[in-house]
Structure formats: structure tokens, C-alpha cells
Specification:
74 residues; 2 helices
């Protein structure tokens, strides 16, 4: 009688799907774009606030002087 050994060979197959990686790259671009747009809006808002403060104070020097008076408590 012949001795036979049966063995299972496990093979790993990987499937590389380009559609999934393309979708994730597009999502990343959208997320980065929305963060950049939000940062731009915040930057414009801060410039508008500074311009308004300078107008109310009477100019940039008066704004800085008023800020120092407010911080020092004078």
C-alpha cells in the first residue's frame, strides 16, 4: 500500500480595485478643498473685523493705542 499525504495549499490572491482607490482620492480632494475654502472664509472674516475696528477707532494707531489701554487697564 502506498502512503499518500494529502495537503491543502493555501494561496493568497489579492484583488486590486482601482475604482475604490479613485473614489478615495476624489473624496480626499473634496475634503481638502472644503477645508481650504473654510480657512479662506475665516481669513476674510478676520480682515473684515480688523477693518471695522480700525474704522471705529479712527485709524490703525488709535486701534493699537486703544488695545494697549484695554489690556493694561488704564
Amino acid at each position: 500500500m502506498e502512503d499518500r499525504v494529502l495537503s491543502k495549499q493555501q494561496t493568497k490572491t489579492t484583488v486590486h480595485e482601482d475604482s475604490t482607490s479613485t473614489v478615495s482620492h476624489e473624496v480626499d480632494k473634496v475634503i481638502i478643498g472644503s477645508i481650504a475654502a473654510f480657512a479662506g472664509v475665516v481669513g476674510l472674516w478676520s480682515l473684515a473685523c480688523l477693518a471695522s475696528a480700525m474704522f471705529q477707532a479712527g485709524g490703525p494707531l488709535q486701534l493699537v493705542g486703544g488695545w494697549f489701554k484695554a489690556v493694561s487697564g488704564m
